[in-house]
TrEMBL record:
One of its GO terms (cellular component) is membrane. InterPro entries: MFS_dom, MFS_sugar_transport-like, MFS_trans_sf, STP/PLT_plant, Sugar/inositol_transpt, Sugar_transporter_CS. Belongs to the major facilitator superfamily. Sugar transporter (TC 2.A.1.1) family. Keywords: Membrane, Sugar transport, Symport, Transmembrane, Transmembrane helix, Transport. This is Major facilitator superfamily (MFS) profile domain-containing protein.
Length: 497
């Protein structure tokens, strides 16, 4: 019996860290829900308010413009008030935005609510993976930091399901309930997150070594592991690793100016490559077209020949379900296979599926009669594209960018990546209708396929493997000869294939 009890407690700390990350990731469910539900709500908003295609593009994309500004502010906020209270602030912003959108008597109020929620999105996208990375151990970091992306997928699926259910209500009530109901979980999370421990790495940056040690004892499996992690964090923060004081007075902060100098103006060789990698992966996550599929899937399927509202909403539920299943698979493989092999296989699959989707939609567009095979091929290619995206590029974007920066640069370095992510997302979501009107919907997906080829080359040449590397050792990894990393990846890629 004693042996059994010992086995049960063997991973108690890491399980608690995962539980904290799960609770934190609930904010990503709310964001995902807001993205998914807007896809279907646009059908009903257009019908009641009579908004144009341009107004639909702006309504869909303005959230990401506001998220860009939110993410840039969030980095400083997370360093100033802590990771935990930043999550609370993001939840409150979501709640206010949801209430305004649910009220939505006209387009202006709807836009205001979308903007407020967008600022909350910027906070959420930065802080959830950063908190998860900082509270988890090296061996489980990939799994834990991929949870926010999985929760976004769950939220999108829930949004699609709610679209289908509430779409049966009267027009004035249905879409307002779709958008407004997110205020309830937002309030619950704002209160519930206060029960979570603060990030031990943030506590060390504030000089609270005693509090940091208590948290590390909670989230580590053994006392020896907690002590070792604390020593590494103290060393990374510029504190003597043998220091035993509870509170240490750190040098006066300079309002983040030194951080921006180290990141942008005078970065070291390793920090420069970290920034290039983070900005690149965030740019390509959306430049390869995922937002066009997730936000306008009903238009793609309608173009392919699915015409009734019920069937359109049911088909989009299939997209959400595919996304969640593949994200679950990715979370279990990301620490076993590694970031780069999954990323390269993922983007390779996206290139092929986007090419097939572009071809099938072009055939539908140019044919004067209904092509059943092209309709089926369009739907299958869309599902395969979503599957490959969420097996690699989707979750790894957030894992990679949250783990590579040094401790003092992490929050603001990650915020730059998130800002690029939101800007690219906004560019795609606010221009997709105009793009496919100009070059046809098939041409738009051929364009995304071409961008995906460039993305594959970027990931191959510029992104070293981070699996099993401690956060405090990332600078050393990015200072190594790039060729060694490529060789390692080639070996790992042969193993997965």
């Amino acid at each position: 019996m004693e042996i059994e009890r010992g086995n049960n407690n063997e991973h108690k700390g890491s399980r608690y860290a995962v539980a904290c990350a799960v609770v934190t990731s609930m904010i990503s469910i709310i964001f995902g829900y807001d993205t998914g539900v807007m896809s279907g709500a646009l059908i009903f908003i257009k019908e009641e308010l009579g908004i144009s295609d341009t107004q639909q593009e702006v309504l869909a994309g303005i959230l990401n413009i506001c998220a860009l500004f939110g993410s840039l502010v969030a980095g400083r906020t997370a360093d100033y008030i802590g990771r935990r209270y930043t999550i609370t602030l993001a939840s409150i912003l979501f709640m206010v935005g949801s209430v305004l959108m649910g009220y939505g008597p006209n387009y202006a109020i709807l836009m205001t609510g979308r903007c407020v929620a967008g600022i909350g999105v910027g906070f959420a996208l930065l802080i959830a993976p950063v908190y998860a990375a900082e509270i988890s151990s090296t061996k489980s970091r990939g799994f834990v930091t991929s949870l926010p992306e999985l929760c976004i997928g769950i939220g999108i699926l829930l949004g699609y399901i709610v679209n289908y259910l509430f779409g049966k209500l009267i027009l004035r009530l249905g879409w307002r309930l779709m958008l407004g109901i997110a205020a309830v979980p937002s309030l619950a999370l704002a209160l519930g997150i206060l029960a979570m421990p603060e990030s031990p790495r943030w506590l060390v940056m504030q000089g609270h070594l005693g509090k940091a040690k208590k948290v590390l004892l909670q989230v580590s499996d053994t006392e020896e592991e907690a002590e070792l992690r604390l020593k590494d964090i103290k060393s990374a923060a510029g504190i003597d690793e043998n220091c035993t004081e509870e509170i240490v007075k750190l040098p006066q902060k300079d309002n983040g100016e030194a951080v921006w100098k180290e990141l942008i103006f005078r970065p070291s060789y390793s920090v420069r490559w970290m920034l290039i990698a983070a900005v690149g992966i965030h740019f390509f996550e959306h430049a390869t077209g995922i937002e066009a599929v997730m936000l306008y899937s009903h238009r793609i399927f309608k173009k392919a020949g699915v015409t009734s509202k019920d069937k359109l909403l049911l088909t989009t539920i299939g997209v959400g379900l595919t996304k969640v299943i593949c994200l679950i698979i990715a979370t279990f493989f990301i620490d076993k296979v590694g970031r780069r092999p999954l990323l390269l296989v993922s983007v390779g699959g996206m290139v092929c599926s986007l090419g097939v989707l572009g071809f099938s939609l072009t055939m539908v567009d140019t044919s004067h009669e209904e092509l059943l095979w092209a309709l089926i091929l369009s739907i299958v290619a869309t599902y395969i594209y979503v599957a490959f995206f969420n097996l690699g590029l989707g979750p790894i974007t957030w894992v990679y960018s949250s783990e590579i920066f040094p401790l003092k640069l992490r929050a603001q370095g990650a915020s730059i990546g998130v800002a690029v992510n939101r800007l690219t997302n906004a560019a795609i979501s606010m221009s997709f209708i105009s793009i496919y009107n100009a070059i046809t919907i098939g041409g738009a997906f051929f364009m995304f396929a071409g961008i995906s080829v460039i993305a594959w080359a970027f990931f191959y040449f510029f992104m070293p493997e981070t699996k099993g590397v401690a956060l405090e050792e990332m600078e050393m990894l990015f200072s190594k000869n790039k060729g060694n990393n490529v060789t390692t990846t080639e070996i790992d890629l042969r193993q997965i294939l």
